[in-house]
What does this fold into?
Amino acid sequence: MSAQAPARDVYDAVADPTRRELIRLLADSGETPLHKLTIRFSMGRTAVSKHLTILKEAHLVIDRKVGRETRYQLNAAPLREIRDWVSFYEKFWNENMARLRQLLEEDEL
It folds into this structure.
């Protein structure tokens, strides 16, 4: 009997700037082999691979083998959780800015 490891938290996965850059690169380029991702960073292949593993554990990246090469592709669906969380605060700040604007306009009169 093998217990499946729980998925990594999506917020934890995107907390690192290297992983955010990997997400951006994959969003721009689609399915990309590891060696093409590695050349974009000032770190070795193993370090980039570890970052991709963390993204994979958060279900943000899908990988597939093509011969001896591993190709990675973005799965943006888990990012909806972050979008939904941020949208609440966007609404909060928009409402506060509207109130501030109203107060400033009233003060001008």
Observations:
- Residues 102 and 108 are 10 Å apart (CA to CA).
- Strands lie at 32-33, 61-66, 69-74.
- The chain has five helices and three strands.
